[in-house]
Amino acid sequence: MPLPIASLSLDLDDKWAYLRSRGDAAWEARPSYLPAVVPRIADFLGERGLACTFFVVGEDADRDDGAREVERIAAAGFEVANHGEQHLPWLDKLTGDALEAEVAEAEIAITRVTGKRPIGFRAPGFSWSPELLALLVRRGYQYDASVFPTFVGPLARAYVKLSGFRAAKPQPESETPEQRFSSLSDALRTLRPHRIETAAGPIMELPVTTMPISRAPIHFTYVSFLAQKSPAAARAYWRTALRLCRLRGVGPSLLLHPLDFLGEEDEPQLAYFPGMRLPRAVKLELLSDVLAALAHNRQVVTVGQHALGRLEK
Fold this sequence. Notes:
- By secondary structure, the chain is an alpha/beta fold.
- The protein has a single domain (5-308), classed as TIM Barrel (Alpha-Beta Barrel).
- 42% of the residues lie in helices and 12% in strands.
- The protein is built from twelve helices and nine strands.
- The chain has helices spanning 15-22, 34-47, 58-62, 64-75, 96-114, 130-138, 152-162, 184-187, 220-227, 231-248, 280-295, 303-308, and strands at 5-11, 53-56, 79-82, 120-121, 143-144, 194-198, 201-205, 253-256, 299-301.
- α2 (34-47) runs parallel beside α4, α9 packs antiparallel against α10 (231-248) and α10 runs parallel beside α11.
- This is Polysaccharide deacetylase.
- One of its GO terms (molecular function) is hydrolase activity, acting on carbon-nitrogen (but not peptide) bonds.
- Residues 17-151 form the NodB homology domain.
């Protein structure tokens, strides 16, 4: 009898993207931690025999140091998918040529580095739109993974408005739209892979898994944030999520980020992000436990395999 399915993905958001989301002008120099963290990630997943899809930002693949790390990811056998050219978490506000450029330029950079055209896309900040999905179909993409079914998204938008957590403008003359962080309608969407009809034809969608029933986040950054208060509670929360996924017939698709492999001692400039108060060793021990539980009696595959049902026998 085949094992139930789970999948793993990592949004390869670089340091500059985090700084820009905070409104820190230091982002303009494009500081990068990819040469330090990508080998750690690749080794960590490789040692555990885990498949993973890396959603890569085009600007990082365009730089020599970033290209080397994207090449490393592809050479290790991981799937490389598209995460937009500039990591703009307001793709739902873009239209026409501006939207197409965000997809196409990253696609070109990834193809040049890996020798393989990406077939999957995830919008930064889960900022998908019907126009984006139709564009993906026209460009030959087979799946999208931008839906984040949670009620927390609107709360995150409210927090951004009330706090100083404002995204810096990618260009001085541009206006910075509100970041989406998913919507209330997204929270009601299915957690399972499903087909979405667009103006250009159908595309498969694999949502980022949230807690069945409550739709609370379960991506690892959130689990590590809980662990800052109580590691035991964080582990119990994750076990509950997996139990509910099994009971509801949901194949969990776990989202990771580079900060999940870093501690405050690695990047003190990013200490204000969720989970970054945990020392790296503590965080990696927690992550090891989380991934072991995910893989227990499940076949862990790429997002592409999960979305399209192309599984190894």
